[in-house]
Amino acid sequence: MxxxxxxxxxxxxxxxxxxxxxxxxxxxxxxxxxxxxxxxSGLVGTxxxxxxxTGGQQVSRLVRGAxxxxxxxxxxxxxxxxxxxxxxxxxxxxxxxVVHLAGAGIADRPWTSDRKRLIRESRVGGTALLAxxxxxxxxxxxxxxxxxxxxxxxxxxxxxxxxxxxxxxxFLADTAREWERAAQPAVxxxxxxxxxxxxIVLSPAGGALARMLPxxxxxxxxxxxNGQQYWSWIAIDDLLTxxxxxxxxxxxxxxxxxxxxxxVRNADFTVTLGRVLNRPAVLRxxxxxxxxxxxxxxxxxxxxxxxxxxxxLLDSGFEYQYPALEGALRHLLGRPQELxx
Length: 341
What we know:
By secondary structure, this protein is of the alpha/beta class. The chain is built from 12 helices and 13 strands.
């Protein structure tokens, strides 16, 4: 069955100055919420805490090491030590929403055995600790929005997958499956848990797009391998709104795909990015070179992929601002159509 999605006609663009206010008034019209955010120093966490703070929400950050007083973003801090399994349930008590984004960077370094162990443990162990502590808190939250990844599906070729599809194979799929299971103590404590299976987050401030921009701006970009692998992506603005939507939508629980409804093949992604930057994008990177340099990481992150559909977001009435890739890139990079001529 084909489902319709909106192009955000009801959401004013951020550049008009009304986007932030509209999002908060839509989801939290009855007043501010108390948010606790892990991973607040990362790409998504930094943007999320800024959005929440400027929108009048009460924000605390769950941070490693000694807690510090409120910073310029008005977000106070609470301390935990996931490496040693330390988190006092009293410290996570009394929040309305907990957003869990913490985890070692998947693409930051080559996948040595030690790196893979850190990636897995930072997600599975950290999530299990947080879920247990929330379950034991005197006043647990209403909802835990817990990051996961579309890596759950593994490499599916041209097959379209949604939240009802099973897990794939490989390191990322195994990690994502265990990551989601680690939140079970919170589920057992009647906390509504949303596992956001996040796709490639597009932002010029970091992540895949930021890494691609320098070579593409020099005209040195191009497809990876044969370019036929699907990249399921989401603009960071839509991801932030997805998090608030998940927090406020009582009917959402379990896995939710946080991706655009229009995934694209890698070759189409590179052509579109080149067009937005007004640069050629024809220098293909052979799969053999990527495998030589990155080994397992190349096949799972660059040469493979899944055609992921956000069925549950669409069913719940979520409205995308940037469902199509070119519009998203032009917004993020400040390249309106007339500048490309």
